[in-house]
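A common beginner's mistake is to predict each chain separately and then try to dock the pieces by hand. The better habit, illustrated here, is to supply every component at once so that their relative placement is modeled jointly.
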Amino acid sequence: DIQLTQSPPFLSASVGDRVNIACRASQDITNFLAWYQQKPGKAPKLLIYAASTLQSGVPSRFSGSGSGTEFTLTIRSLQSEDFAAYFCQQYKTYPLTFGGGTTVEI
Amino acid sequence: QLRLQESGPGLVKPSETLSLTCDVFYDSMNTYYWNWLRQTPGKGLEWIGYVYSNGSPNYNPSLKSRVTMSVDTFKNQFYLELRSVTAADTAIYYCARLGDYLDNGGTYFGHFDFWGRGILVSVSS
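With all components supplied together, the output reads:
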């Protein structure tokens, strides 16, 4: 199975900050990577797929970059509604796997 | 817009079978892959498997021996059965659709674009 390692596990930030979350794959996954946001008690919400394509309706302050084994989710100017957990997910090979998550907190 | 909703018992006894249903609203199930995932504080998000609209399944090898998924496109539903459950199967279970996109002339599936709200299933006697 492809392992995804996210860093950091927890991130303290303030409104207006620029935030970067890293996701490292245990092998080359080209650009077959998605990012999700999850708030407490809710299902994950798709933010980005194909490493850098913004899902329809997602604010443009979210962006994704990277290829191969190194990927980054960037939130350009953190808003209060962005405090949540974020997960990466690979779909290069089955079984589909997720990173352990990064919690962005105040 | 597509909506998914899980249903089933919230409590299952050890060694018994966990059975869940996912209702799909406001769109056809045809030509898509319909998934089950689960989430626990300890193991995080885990993909259980999918069933394609024609009934073909693909399961996570870690659960394959205990899982069966099926679909009924006329009812707009798909199903999960997980046999011989233990406390380790206690989790929030989600149903979700694999989304598709075009890239370099090909169609790719792999990200989950629609999710149900999730259902907590506890395994306990």
